[in-house]
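Checked the freezer inventory, then went back to the computational side. Two predictions to log before the end of the day. The first one is the construct we discussed on Monday; recording sequence and tokens without edits.
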Amino acid sequence: MAILRIFAVSSFLFLIPQISSGAVQMQEKVSYGGWPNCVRLANGQIELIVTTDVGPRVIRLGFVGGQNLFKEFADQMGKTGGTEWRSYGGHRLWHAPEAMPRTYFPDNTPVKYAWDGKTLRLVQPIETSTGVVKEMEITLDPNENHVTVLHRLTNKNLWDAEFAPWALTVMAPGGRAIFPQELYRPHPEFLMPARAMVLWGYTDMKDPRWTWGTKYIQLRQDPKAKSKQKVGLMNTLGWAAYYLNGELFLKRFAFDPKLNYPDWGCNNETFTDPDMLEVETLGPLAKLPPDGHINHTENWFLNRVQLGDTEASLDKQLMPLVRKTGK
């Protein structure tokens, strides 16, 4: 049983556990990347670093003492304030569909945060140009390499507003993203379409970073590449992954065929350039009344595994990990 100490921070009540076996360690005010007020969550196996000087944003995810699977933009680390939008790296929350300047409201100011002994909650101030409030609730499993991230968008305008939650994870360079193809079904037994895929004006399907397989779509992040690539998917199978240096980051997320998703029906997108690769998920579009909100949840899993790039290798080494996580 964890013993709790109570702190009042940023108008929220803080409960910081003294750790025993099988508990999550929460450290307040960890300095990371030049930000003095980060929060660290760890369970003895994996760790997360969450910024509170800017955000909400998870800037680090990895095994304790290991590589950061998330990208860090070195020239932006530790910066605060200002009116320009900065990527920073890590995992962030946007609202879709993408539009300039609405989507690019800068998250350069401090966020409120609270820890209840299980979940870290972060709340951004109201975006002055959109009237939207962004929140994340981050729960690290005490025993497994599993993180649950609930994303919430709240409409603080005096009128209805329509948008969708959009969770973007900026992955460290040099790895490979993996997305499932829909299950093969033979003609003429199945006549209706099964795979919805959306291309952008700058998508080049002949780019060598793409591997268009029978069961999987793979996209390599290449620091030597000169162009950008993006694809959107209606991913009914509800998973996507990124593999880097023997470690696998796996996302699970929902799809509801009764709901309308942005970008012509996409709930999963990927983007890459010479610096990084994004594994993105989207919730459904919703018309929210004043003070209405919409939630979107991702489940993250980390594994150490030697993963080949053939479909047979993915069948053998990746799919058991996907099946283990369930729906």
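The second is the one RB wanted added to the comparison set:
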Amino acid sequence: MSTRWRATPMRSSTSSRPQPARLAALWLGVQLVWGAVLGISLQARCSALAPHASLAVFGIVSTSGALVAATTQLIVGPFSDRMRRAGHSRSAFYAFGAVLGAIAVVIFYEVSSVQGLLAAFVALQLAMNVVIGPYQAIVPDTMPRSRFGLASGWLAAFAGAGNAIGAVLAAALGATVILGIALAAGLIAAAAVTLAHLRGLPLQPLEDAGPLPFTRHLADLFVSRAFVYLGFYTMLGYLYFFVATVLPPGFMLNATRASGLCILIFTLVSALGAALAARPADRSDERWVVTAGGGCIAMALAVLAAGRAGLWGLPAAIALAGAGWGIFLCADWAFACRLLPPAALATTMAVWNLAVVGPQMLAPAIATLLLSRLGTLRSAAGPREALLLAGAEVLIGTLWIWRLPVPSEGK
């Protein structure tokens, strides 16, 4: 028997309208940190602390962090849902996680050993996922269904912008404590914007909350997203190493700055792709939107892996992949918000988000195993083969989306 839960208004005026940009501000801060850490700094720190085994150390550190991320979301998600059904917001999780994350990211840039790097990265993943798990539900918590696509577009655009700013800071400041302080300040400021806006918003009423159904549709949504994110994290993890292999001797940019420029291009164009996909995600079949995005990513990675782009074609291929990523992010979030049950959204999204943190853990492990079997783990061919693997993973996830129905409610 199901129980009807209705959220009570928060303290301020119930006439306040949700502003997607302010709701998405926290996502900008989260992705600011990840744009610097996952895109450049983790690889650079592994290379500096373990110069003769950087790929292997990167695989261990990133896999361990992702395992902690998945576990944290599965614990925090149900707890935040219970608070939500009692009529409370999830703001406490955002504030607590942001403060801990700000501390952890500074420590990440201070440590001077591989063991310290591992501990700091695990702590950072734990803190950030205290935020991320409950934050997955912010769109249906505050927005009407008819505006899910618009709000998801803002989230995807701010994800791209945050990644871009983080990459620029990492390339300009290097893996230094100054960078850690800048990222911490950005995260706290972004959290403050979202938290201040949430104080003036009523929560959306919840529908019936019965037992959580496990259906084929939810399984297919999970599998599709998991494969796309496998490709994304494989690409993100090995792009630094790929760029290092294609730079000619004496080139004006080193690997850190060149890969930072690539990530900047990727993330800026992804914000544009997300903006262009917002209206189609609200008005049309999201499967076509996802397919367009995934197709662009897979095509770009295939060109890079085949060595067809060359040094000067690298930015164009990266831009194509970025456009596809923004399109995918917008449609993916809107799709999930329409399919998953609102009354247990953080719980189901914690499971659904295993399709993000699971691949974050598995992507380097799968790539390391494959490159080891091929004998290219320590050769210049390794990063190219990793990008080819990334393209194949994205393509599988894109094709899998067609097993899902069209969620027409709210369009």
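For RB: The chain has one domain: 19-201+214-403. The domain at 19-201+214-403 is CATH 1.20.1250.20 (Growth Hormone; Chain: A;). Let me know if you want it refolded.
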